[in-house]
Design goal:
By secondary structure, the protein is an alpha/beta fold. The protein contains 15 helices and 23 strands. The protein folds into two domains: about 1-255 and about 460-480, Aldehyde Dehydrogenase, Chain A, domain 1, CATH 3.40.605.10; about 260-450, Aldehyde Dehydrogenase, Chain A, domain 2 (3-Layer(aba) Sandwich), CATH 3.40.309.10. It has helices spanning about 40-55, 65-80, 85-95, 100-120, 160-170, 185-195, 210-220, 235-245, 270-280, 300-315, 330-350, 380-385, 400-410, 425-435, 465-470, and strands at about 1-5, 5-10, 10-15, 20-25, 30-35, 125-130, 140-145, 150, 175-180, 205-210, 225-230, 250-255, 260, 290-295, 350-355, 370-375, 390-400, 415, 415-420, 440, 455, 460, 475-480. A seven-stranded mixed β-sheet has the order 15-16-17-14-13-19-20, sandwiched between helices. Strands 10-9-8-11-12-22 form a six-stranded mixed β-sheet, with helices on both faces. The termini are far apart.
């Protein structure tokens, strides 16, 4: 059993303000897999004060950018060396299938490298050529660190969410207080162990597992300059209101209800095989999951039949089993939430094609749900409009291409999506019409050099690459 009885505050392990420890339980069988102390407001005060002091002293922010890159490159190498250990721990905590957690670690290598390349090429300072040749004034434009960053992340993909924020923030010269979910106390304390092994000055980084109340205390703290949040749209609205009141900088990566448009000329078998991952990654507990499948009326039953075969073939079980594709939900309340939505879909009149609200046989001891597929779904139904955050897919028929685009855009969200077609150029044309921050064609993987984020209620701001790095800087113009 892994036990953490101290908190990682300001770059070192410190006694917590409250010694009580939280039991971390496996969602597979509810057994205790570890114990960890949780941060309280007093611990937040210590972490923020140290971050503020380190930023004002300027040791890290005045470190040349390429030297900061070298430090973060060492951190990424350490993470890579511990990839299997990290993946196993996340599977234990979250119930995420092992194939997903290990693949996620490999993806983080590409994500981090994109940030590192961006920092090496970033215009940290440039002199502008005067637009008026007769003017004696020239402008020096600098990109400087924002200050103290409160990074708040969810439980569903902790390492990805954490590194998406701390790497660009630190590359820009900021000091960071990372608030993580109690459920991820073990893997995030492992993250802290790795951070302790690189040459970050005292005060620059803290990692605090804590509840929602302590999280709100952190984002409301007067010495925090920027909030970087990933989580639910509801929580994002609350954080945005706090940021607005205090005029803090804020970036929000929020919920999604993404659509996958299967065009009439698409290879249905290939599309469905791609949707196995695009729609059901991480047990369906993913904001980018393409859970609304839009199929042409002319091929509707063909798509439904192929998806039925897929959903019923998925192995549900122990996330440590190499053959498992779908593991348990992270908590009992999340399990019940997903089962309730399945009941809602049935009550709304959708056709239950596969699955249902029953717990899979033999897995009653964990937080499992049965992967479920609904057909004959109208886009106005709750199961088509609300984020379920579990392995539940809905298939919606469309009449023509304009109708498909209309349905895809008929959502309060706009985070992700996909288009499937035998004609790549045609698919690109359709993708351009869908109002979403990220969209893939024929199952393409994530491009970490490009910006990631959402339209509408899916968030504010962008992450990844040069754009994501720039989100942690302020412009300064010096005229000479």
């Amino acid at each position: 059993m892994t036990v953490y009885d101290r908190l990682f505050v300001a770059g070192s392990w410190a006694e917590p303000s409250a010694p009580e420890m939280l039991d971390i339980r496996s969602p597979h069988d509810r057994s205790v897999i570890g114990r960890a102390v949780q941060a309280r407001p007093a611990d937040v005060d210590r972490a923020v004060a140290a971050a503020r002091a380190s930023f004002e002293e300027g040791t890290w922010r005045r470190t040349p950018p390429l030297e900061r890159v070298a430090v973060l490159r060492r951190f990424n190498a350490l993470r890579e060396a511990n990839a299997e250990r990290i993946a196993e721990l996340i599977s234990l905590e979250n119930g995420s299938a092992g194939w997903f957690t290990l693949a996620g670690q490999h993806g983080l290598t590409r994500q981090a490298n994109a940030y590192l390349r961006a920092a090496e090429e970033f215009a940290w300072e440039e002199t502008l050529v005067p637009s008026d040749p007769a003017s004696p004034v020239r402008s020096v434009v600098r990109r400087e660190a924002v200050g103290v960053v409160a990074a708040v992340i969810p439980w569903n993909s902790p390492f990805s969410s954490a590194t998406t924020k701390i790497i660009p923030s630190l590359l820009a010269g900021n000091s960071v207080v990372l608030k993580v979910s109690p459920e991820n106390s073990l893997s995030m304390n492992l993250l802290a162990e790795l951070l302790a092994q690189v040459d970050l000055p005292e005060g620059v980084i803290s990692v605090l597992p804590a509840d929602r109340e302590t999280s709100e205390y952190l984002v409301s703290h007067p010495d925090v300059d920027k909030i970087a949040f990933t989580g639910s749209t509801r929580a994002g609205r609350r954080i945005a209101s706090i940021a607005g009141e205090q005029l803090k900088r804020v970036s929000l990566e929020l919920g999604g209800k993404s659509a996958a448009i299967i065009l009439p000329d698409a290879d249905v078998d290939k599309a469905v095989q791609g949707l196995k991952f695009a729609s059901l990654l991480n047990n369906g507990e993913s904001c980018i999951a393409q859970t609304r499948i839009l199929a042409p009326r002319s091929r509707y039953e063909e798509v439904v039949a192929a998806l039925k075969e897929l959903v019923e073939s998925l192995k549900v079980g122990d996330p440590r089993d190499p053959g498992t594709f779908i593991g348990p939900m992270i908590r009992q309340d999340q399990q019940q939430r997903v089962r309730d939505y399945i009941e809602v879909g049935m009550a709304e009149g959708a056709r239950l094609v596969a699955g249902g609200p029953q717990i899979p046989e033999g897995l009653e001891g964990g937080y499992y749900v049965t992967p479920t597929l609904f057909a004959d779904v109208d886009n106005s139904m709750r199961i088509a409009q609300e984020e379920i955050f579990g392995p539940v897919l809905v298939v919606i028929a469309y009449e023509d291409e304009d109708d498909a685009v209309r349905i895809a855009n008929d959502s309060e969200y706009g985070l992700s999506g996909g288009v499937w077609s035998a004609d790549e150029q045609h698919a690109l044309a359709v993708a351009r019409r869908v109002r979403t921050g990220t969209i893939t064609v024929n199952g393409a993987s994530v491009a970490f050099d490009g910006p990631f984020g959402g339209f509408k209620a899916s968030g504010i701001g962008r992450e990844y690459g040069a754009v994501g790095l720039g989100a942690y800087t302020e412009y300064k113009t010096i005229t000479v």
